[in-house]
C-alpha cells in the first residue's frame, strides 16, 4: 500500500485518532503513518485487505481516521459508505474527508449501525440523464452541495434546540455527504435509499465491512489519560458502570451481526475494538460465531510480521502497549460462506 503522509505535524488537532505512535520498525512493517492513526488501528484496515473496485462499509465511522485510510486505499475505484449514530462526530469526519480530498467515492449516513440496511449502489439502476423535469429533479441526486434547503435548516434548528442531534439516530438514515463519484448522481433517491430485502445482501452487498465498534476505549492510552482531567466519577460512569457495559456488549454484538448481514457471500468483515477486555472482544466473537453458521473466522497471514500477539481465540489478534508499543486493539476477521 502506498500511503500518503497527509498529517500536518504542526497541527496536531488533525490527529483525530490518537494513541501512541508506531515505533520506527512498525512504520516500516506497516508502511503507513497517516491521519494520526496509530499502527494498531492501521492494522485493522490492512486486515480488511481492500482491493480496487471493492464496495466498503464502515459501520462506526466517526470521527473518521480509519475511514480516511480506507478511502486512501480504495483510490479511484469502488465505493465507501460510512455510518455513525452521532451526527456531530460524522460531520467532523466529513470535514476531514473534504480537507484531504478523499471523499470522492464516499457517502456518509447518520444512522444506527445495528439497523442500517442500504446496500452499495447497484450498477443496474437507471440513471436520469439529460433534461429532467422539475418534479423528477427533486427526487433525483444532483451533485452534492453543502448548501441546505430551508426545510433542512429548520429541521437542524429544531434538533439543536432539543439537543437530540447529539444523542439519537434519525429513524431513517440521513445522508449528510456524497462524493461526485459515489455513484449517486443521477439516480432516483427512492432507488438508492430503499432497504435491502431478505438475503439480497448475499449477492449485492458489500465486499468489505469494518465494524470498529463502540467500546469502553480502555486500551486507548490517550483516552484513559483524559480521565485525569475528567475525574473518577466520569470514569466510573463511562467505563466501570456495569449496566453501561452490559448494554455495550449487546450493542457490539448487534453491530457485528448487522455488518455481517450486509456482507456479500465471499466478502470479509473485520471486527475491532480499542478495549483490552475479554468481554468486549473474544466473548463477542464467540457469541457471534455460535449464531452465524456462515461466518468463518480467518487467520491473518499478514500478521506474521506485525508486532502483536494472538487473542484468546486462535486467529484473533491483540495489540497492547507492552507487546506492540501501541495503544490496545483487538482484531478479528471473518469471511461469509455460502449457505
Ligand atoms: C471506536 S469509535 C469509531 C472510531 C472510528 N472508526 C475511527 O477510526 O475514527 C465508535 C463509534 O461508534 C459510534 N456508534 C455508537 N453506537 C452506534 C450505533 N448504534 N450505530 C453506529 N455507530 C455507533 C460512536 O458514535 C463512535 O463514533
Automatic annotation (TrEMBL):
GO biological process, one term: RNA methylation
InterPro entries: MeTrfase_RsmB-F_NOP2_cat, MeTrfase_RsmB-F_NOP2_dom, RCMT, RCMT_subfamily_9, SAM-dependent_MTases_sf
Phosphoprotein keyword on record: no
Active site: 274 (nucleophile)
Keywords from the UniProt entry: Methyltransferase, RNA-binding, S-adenosyl-L-methionine, Transferase
Any one GO molecular function term: RNA binding
Domain named SAM-dependent MTase RsmB/NOP-type: residues: 1-337
Ligand binding (S-adenosyl-L-methionine): 84, 112, 212
Keyword S-adenosyl-L-methionine among UniProt keywords: yes
SUPFAM superfamilies xref list: S-adenosyl-L-methionine-dependent methyltransferases (SSF53335)
Family to which the UniProt record says this protein belongs: Belongs to the class I-like SAM-binding methyltransferase superfamily. RsmB/NOP family.
PANTHER family linked: NOP2 YEAST -RELATED NOL1/NOP2/FMU SUN DOMAIN-CONTAINING (PTHR22807), SAM-DEPENDENT MTASE RSMB_NOP-TYPE DOMAIN-CONTAINING PROTEIN (PTHR22807:SF16)
Protein name as annotated: SAM-dependent MTase RsmB/NOP-type domain-containing protein
Species assigned in the record: Panicum virgatum (Blackwell switchgrass)
Amino acid at each position: 500500500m502506498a500511503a500518503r503522509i497527509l498529517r500536518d505535524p504542526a497541527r496536531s488537532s488533525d490527529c483525530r485518532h490518537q494513541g501512541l505512535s508506531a515505533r520506527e520498525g512498525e512504520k516500516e512493517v506497516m508502511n503507513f503513518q497517516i491521519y494520526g492513526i496509530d499502527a494498531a488501528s492501521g492494522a485493522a484496515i490492512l486486515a480488511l485487505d481492500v482491493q480496487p473496485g471493492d464496495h466498503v462499509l464502515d459501520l462506526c465511522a466517526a470521527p473518521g481516521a480509519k475511514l480516511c485510510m480506507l478511502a486512501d486505499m480504495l483510490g479511484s475505484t469502488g465505493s465507501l459508505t460510512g455510518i455513525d449514530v452521532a451526527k456531530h462526530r460524522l460531520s467532523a469526519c466529513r470535514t476531514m474527508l473534504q480537507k484531504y480530498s478523499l471523499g470522492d467515492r464516499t457517502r456518509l449516513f447518520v444512522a444506527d449501525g445495528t439497523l442500517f440496511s442500504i446496500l452499495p449502489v447497484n450498477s443496474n439502476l437507471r440513471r436520469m440523464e439529460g433534461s429532467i423535469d422539475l418534479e423528477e429533479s427533486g427526487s433525483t441526486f444532483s451533485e452534492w452541495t453543502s448548501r441546505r434547503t430551508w426545510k433542512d435548516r429548520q429541521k437542524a434548528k429544531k434538533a439543536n434546540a432539543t439537543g437530540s442531534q447529539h444523542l439519537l439516530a434519525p429513524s431513517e438514515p440521513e445522508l449528510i455527504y456524497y462524493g461526485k463519484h459515489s455513484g449517486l448522481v443521477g439516480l432516483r433517491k427512492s432507488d438508492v435509499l430503499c432497504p435491502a430485502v431478505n438475503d439480497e445482501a448475499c449477492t449485492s452487498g458489500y465486499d468489505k465491512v469494518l465494524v470498529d465498534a463502540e467500546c469502553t476505549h480502555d486500551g486507548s492510552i490517550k483516552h484513559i489519560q483524559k480521565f485525569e482531567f475528567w475525574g473518577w466519577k466520569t470514569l466510573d460512569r463511562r467505563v466501570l458502570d456495569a449496566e453501561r457495559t452490559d448494554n455495550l456488549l449487546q450493542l457490539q454484538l448487534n453491530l457485528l451481526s448487522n455488518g455481517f448481514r450486509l456482507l456479500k457471500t465471499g466478502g470479509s468483515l473485520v471486527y475491532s475494538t480499542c478495549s483490552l477486555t475479554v468481554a468486549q472482544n473474544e466473548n463477542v466473537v464467540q457469541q457471534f460465531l455460535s449464531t452465524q453458521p456462515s461466518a468463518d473466522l480467518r487467520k491473518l497471514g499478514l500478521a506474521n510480521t506485525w508486532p502483536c500477539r494472538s487473542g484468546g481465540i486462535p486467529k484473533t489478534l491483540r495489540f497492547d502497549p507492552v507487546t506492540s508499543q501501541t495503544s490496545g486493539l483487538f482484531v478479528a476477521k471473518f469471511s461469509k460462506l455460502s449457505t
